[in-house]
Write a structure and sequence with these properties.
Distance between the termini: 23 Å
Structural class: alpha/beta
Low-confidence stretches: none
Number of domains: 2
Number of helices: 14
CATH superfamily of the largest domain: Aldolase class I
Shape: globular
CATH architecture of the largest domain: Alpha-Beta Barrel
Radius of gyration: 19 Å
Strand order of the largest sheet: 3-4-5-6-7-8-9-10
Bound molecules: flavin mononucleotide
CATH topology of the largest domain: TIM Barrel
Number of strands: 10
């Protein structure tokens, strides 16, 4: 296992952080990741040492009030994780978002996170996600309405906006703070950019300076050295790990001072995830999610494409498991940093 932890990073990550009326035990959190940050993955993450706070996959606010946690694919959780899990909601109507927030609070989750970053066309069409960045006053009003509905932490995840200008996220961050947000996660990319250009970390520093609530920096942290650099160069209060957190879920605990993982960590965690997926989801849903994860697993290896293709073509979980076992028979060479082409 490469990825040495630079001196000074672990103590920084071990500092507790107050978010509204609650405190989290550290500074490294799991970013929301659709079809990746599900209940099975979060259980794996917990077994590998966990992290300070987890954000769920985005969930439609309109559906949450009546959603059945045992049949829903997104709004599904283990009781023991609720206090460390914030549910991300997506919507455009304040009353519906407030109703969703009330259910989230009643279920005992850590808090509610509002999605102002998803730039997928089908979502923006309904004036949700990143579409709301075009109407900052409207976005802030939604946050205010959610704020009034609950006592638990209300956080917002947003990106730069639709133009590459740091004044836009700075203005929005101030509005979100005034609307009552308890913390922000900021991904410094413009909305149509699907991670083809590097995230502009200098904008994180600008946003952090503009508000007094905690700011989690997000975007392009691919190893422990990146994490330290983001913290020290931007002054952000914490880091939200997305793709790397999926590719190497033990990194949260390792960077925060835990023991380095053993040589079989990739194989063991991939195989464990197949089991957890089968426990939490029906076979087709479980396999679909494992295939998504496989791209992130494969990104860690020089010949990861072979592994990815075998898993992608697997007709059932047993074949996917066999592909994992076969790949690791030959001790595949690990990449120091994951292959970004597989992580788009
Ligand atoms: C497959 C995938 C799914 C994502 N799903 C969500 C989501 O549901 N909600 C959200 O706010 N961001 C979502 N994101 C964005 C990530 O949370 C994060 O902002 C982005 O990946 C940049 O961080 P990273 O470089 O650490 O991966 C998603 C990103 C990817 C790649």
């Amino acid at each position: 296992m490469t990825d040495p932890v630079p001196q000074g990073l672990s103590p920084m990550l071990q500092r507790p952080l107050a978010i509204g009326c609650r405190t989290i035990p550290g500074r490294l959190v799991l970013a929301p990741m659709t079809l990746l940050g599900h209940v099975a993955f979060r259980q794996l993450l917990d077994e590998l040492g966990g992290c300070a706070l987890m954000f769920s996959e985005m969930c439609s606010a309109a559906r949450i009030p009546t959603e059945n946690r045992h049949t829903s694919y997104y709004f599904r959780w283990r009781d023991q994780e609720a206090g460390r899990l914030s549910i991300q909601i997506l919507g455009s109507e304040g009353t519906r978002m407030a109703a969703a927030a009330r259910r989230i609070e009643a279920e005992g989750f850590f808090g509610v996170d509002i999605n102002l970053g998803c730039a997928v066309k089908e979502i923006c069409k309904f004036n949700q996600g990143a579409a709301l960045l075009k109407a900052p006053a409207e976005a802030a009003a939604l946050v205010a309405q959610v704020r009034q509905a609950v006592q638990c932490p209300v956080t917002v995840k947003f990106r730069t906006g639709w133009q590459d200008d740091p004044r836009i996220p700075v203005d929005l961050a101030r509005r979100l703070e005034d609307a009552g947000a308890d913390a922000l996660t900021f991904h410094p990319r413009v909305a149509p950019d699907v991670r083809t250009r590097p995230a502009r970390w200098e904008y994180i520093a600008r946003v952090k300076e503009a508000v007094s609530i905690p700011v989690f920096g997000n975007g392009d942290v691919f190893d422990a050295a990146d994490c330290l650099k983001m913290l020290t160069t931007t002054g952000c209060d914490g880091v939200a790990l997305g793709r790397l957190g999926i590719a190497r879920p033990w990194s949260f605990a390792h960077w925060a001072g835990g023991a380095p993982p053993g040589a079989s960590i990739y194989k063991d965690s991939a195989l464990r995830l197949t089991v957890l997926l089968e426990q939490h989801f029906e076979p087709t849903k479980a396999l679909r999610r494992f295939k998504r994860y496989a791209a992130y697993l494969a990104a860690n290896f020089a010949f990861g494409n072979t592994l990815y293709n075998h898993i992608r073509n697997a007709p059932e979980m047993a074949a996917a498991r066999q592909a994992v076992t076969n790949f690791f028979l030959n001790e595949p060479p690990e990449r120091q940093r994951p292959n970004l082409n597989l992580l788009r």
